[in-house]
Structures
1.
Amino acid sequence: MEAALPQVAARKVRVFGEQGLSDEGEERPDWLSAEVPVAMVFNGVSHAVMMATPDQLEEFALGFALSEGIIDHMDDCRGVDVCEVESGSAALPHGVGAIEVRMDIAARCFERLKARRRTLAGRTGCGVCGVENLAALDLVPEQLPAQPWHREVDVATVLQAFDGLQMRQRLNAQAGSLHAAGWARLDGQLLFACEDVGRHNALDKLIGYLAKYQNIREPGFVVLTSRGSHELVRKCVRVGISALATISAPTATGVQLADLAGMRLWGLCRAPRAVLYTPGRGVTAS
């Protein structure tokens, strides 16, 4: 069950600098994206608190559990419950909502989680908050298999998918501050997209959606309204997604991880141009 917290909030603002406005500006209604604490609770133990948009929270929790290696398969999730938390009981300011997403996971996964448990304080701009030491960064990716369809994820296909992404950003059209992660077929058709104030969260929601509806192993690729940073590449690789395209540039470590894993990575995807940074396992760069 999804929480009932609003995804956007109305607020009066004063606009300045537009042609025809006086020096005093003009008061207008505006919409702001919600950003609420979402606690990920596994078998009764709180593991992470992320600042997120209160939408598609079951998919968010499932995608987070998969992309962080907490569970290995969809079947390791035995149930998910989304609960609103009173601001007073969560030591939050009055009127600030919070959510707990409670997931029951397989005993072996929970034992593994306890063995390597760390406390994460989620931020919209950070992917490794709370890591205890350098070895915990986990920058050695799994090896993706060679995919004969990688060449089909070409510049025209990638740009077509991005062209369809904007139309699916319903919340961003209102508030203008959300990232999106979309899943596209090899013909460039975008099948669905997820939104969140955090780019990692949007990707986790998408991964959860893919896992829930059994699309995650089908040929296709992810498009993201973000840079191609190492943690986004790492999340995709961990769940077997082998092609990724981002609207901004990747980082050097993101490219290195994609190359090591055998991922096909596009960046700076802004029509009519896109840059292929890594071709994918078994594909030459030419």
2.
Amino acid sequence: VPTLTVAQNIFLTREYRIGTGLIDDREAERRAADLFALLDVVVDPKAIVGDLGAGQKQLTEIAKAISQDAKVLVLDEPSTALAVSDVERLFVFLQKLKAKGVAIIYVSHRMDEIARIADRATILRDGRHVITAPLSELPIDTMIEHIVGRRSKGLSDVERGVAVKGDVLLELDNVSGQHKPENVSLTLHRGEVLGLAGLLGS
């Protein structure tokens, strides 16, 4: 809920209360801080969720999930909005949960993550079950083969063409907005792919 704080979102419908029955936000903030300490990440429990970047919103959802002392934890693409350092901390924490007997379903299209943290993998293609096997029996090239339905040749069967830059279709010269961007200049040619990159949340 974007208008509530991080702590209020984590304990939504499970609010801590004082003796009079009123909601105890201070206790929720303290418990939320403890959860983020367990994850070894920095998120302000008092911050309004609508003001957070994508990564901190994701961490808030993860904290909410683990706050319920779940026996089964389902994480669907949890790393997509996280910085590399936060992903590493998440993996360490998942290993701790696993050691405590929590069953974890980790959904991801990132093969390197699956190879690092999973014991077994299930591969789906077009919504249908293809295979479930221990990771030791599923090297990455085999996983890719099951995902696409055929053995990948990489780029060995692709004929290399000659790239030709065409006319200029778009040109920006020191373009700035009210907040961002600032002084952006670029030129885009016909027949060209131009990538724009920035830091997480930018």
3.
Amino acid sequence: MSTEAYQAKYGKMLDPKEVSVNLPDGRVITFETGRIAKQARGSAVAKMGDAFVLSTVCYGEEKDGDFFPLTVEYREKSYAAGRLPGGYSKREPGRPSDEEILSARIIDRPIRPMFPENFTREVQVIVQVLSSDKKFAPDVLGVSAASLSIGLSELPFEQQVAAVRVAVVDGQNIVMPTYDQVAVADLDLVVAGTEDSVCMVEGGAYEVSEDTMIGAILAGHEVIKEMCKAQQQLVDRCSKPKMELKPKFVGEEHDKLVATVKEVVWDELNKDVHSNMVKTDFYPAMADLCAKMLEDSRILAIIGEGEAQDPKLAADAKGIFSELERTAMREMILNEGVRLDGRTTTEVRPIEIEMGVLPRAHGSAIFQRGETQGLVICTLGTKADEQRFESLQGEGAKSYMLHYNFPPFSVGECKKLGLSRREIGHGHLAERSLAAVLPLPEDFPYTIRVVSEIMESNGSSSMASVCGGCLSLMDAGVPIKAPV
């Protein structure tokens, strides 16, 4: 078949459709589809200046379950900056760098809530930086590209999402700032949202006021609104027909199951919720009550017994139990002002601190808040100990690092040891929290490494890492500007 005949039958193979958004300073963000990666379920490109970010989405077969297996991958290619990878192998490594993992998490967080609650197909979003701009980071464009690629696919997606970076320099809000502007900014913020609302904020600041923070968020959201409208224009023109999503629970049989589960467990469940158990007692109690419920004759009459048991109805019964557990806790908090451990809504968990617990460490501290415990260690080194890294902007070095470890025993589980994306993300959060109070390198010419070992967890272990990290720095004699 000739090219002309093929195009007459199927259309042009390279047939891009574009929409554009103007930023307040006159720069333009362009969204495109129909030219690259057309066999993906959805593909889209976000462009600004020389930056060219591609997102693709694919999905698997429908599966029963209560878990949404969404995977977001973000990759920066060396050729995007006209560079060769460093080291002996001139190929990008298989494992993403910490920076790529952090960017993937920024993309994941705002798009995940836009999928329906009962959607359980496996979904994979891959965002690749194909061309980078020397002036600004391309990572936030990945949120918009990912949102658009999903919107163009058959996947159900509630609203289009976009993200921008906002820097505050000399009191001015700058949307999509350059690297140089971020370097001198009082506030560096990533804001993500829909046309209606803000759904994610992440950033760091040098002790700015609440008004400055709110102003930056609102300035970012004004641009986000226009970006979401532009995405929707492409979705309206080019989207594939959306798949039909079956309701999670339907029919009289389910209604009967809901009523029966509540009849069987509610009184005992409510009693356990009000008993102020510690976590290590409460979780087993809930598991035992759920197992007891599944063996009750009233439940077995609905879901069946032995080989005749309907696995979907059994799974539904467990899901109903979980919803009742959540309802009982929520009602206790809202109606009685009491939380699961017996505290009121204004009480903080008990806090205990020990300093200098490891004799050979330069600085160490245990920070315990309720059932969350962090053992945090500070080690000082010379300039030769700095961490070398390579990015699209070239090579660089870090003289301050905070690493976060979350071993399975901290929550009483048996799991394979390994560095998870969550550990990298929490470490980055805590690292940024303390960076603003560290002394300048010329005043304190040491390499600083803080390691947070989470020994127990029931509540924010990243917060414990910040508090414990601050204590370990003080124990090591680092002249921080203020406690955090």
4.
Amino acid sequence: MWGAFAITYKLACPLAQQNSLGARIVSSAVFFAVGTGLVLHVRRALLRELRQVREVAGATQNVLLRPLPPRLEGLALAAERLSASRGASVGGDLYEVTATDHGVRVVMGDVRGHGLDAIGTAAAVLGSFREAAHEEPELPLVLRRLERALGRHLTERSRADQPATGVAAPDDALLAEEFVTVLLLEISEEGEISALNCGHPWPHLLSGQARPLTDGEPLPPLGTLPLPAELPVLHCGPLLPGEALILHTDGMEDERNAAGAYFPLRSALTEAARTQPVSPQGLVRAVHARLVRHAGRLPSDDAALLVLRNDRARVPVQEPEPGCAIRPAMELSGRRRDEWRR
């Protein structure tokens, strides 16, 4: 329409055929107006398309990283992620919490890199977890299901990258291409925490102050080496009422500021927990806000944070050994709590 108007003016308007200064000024003004109208029209079209893309991205996020319920089986939940890609809603970080017949099961993972390929890999791992968490009675079986799902996904993607032959790349090339760190947790009805870790940062236990849940040695990330024949589950003790578990991806701890200093995640968690009672949603927002202030920009890597607070009334009473007495869990703290754990 704008082009037709300009051509019609040039061919049909007598003023456009004149060479006087006034005629040239008028013609210039007409073509300037036409150009401005065309630019504004294109801008509106691009903004409309951008809104549609963001709507699709939001729908994708809700399918891939479904919003967690505020409470699940007596646990208060909150999770949020910051994307390293400007304007992106999803990336290579993944998490899920689900209630099963075997307890509340949690997965937190991080795909190497970010972007569309990372989203596809995260979707494959999450889809497998959402089925296996309900079907498999033991955590090692869940982890093996995730390994097989990742292998299938990488093989299919390799075939798609070789349309001429339709043959997947050699296994070594797949292993070098992509891997996923995965942390699996299971919280029983009694509050006992069991864990399997493939190259992922250990969570923090927040009880007055933040400290690592364990210092156990993790397995290699999924996709780098086959899982060993034996997968020993690490038993990390109870999550007592009022305590919280903080799961995160390495984008939280690896972020640096302009001076090159790493983000002090543990002190940020401890400081955010000073406001009692600890709100999972408030803690997530406070830590992410401090991360952005520390970096002075968007994070250089995707960063996710997941908080689970035990709001159950009590940990069931344990059977004491002969000659020993067990005090209620709510009365224990500090050194006495560690003694109770042992």
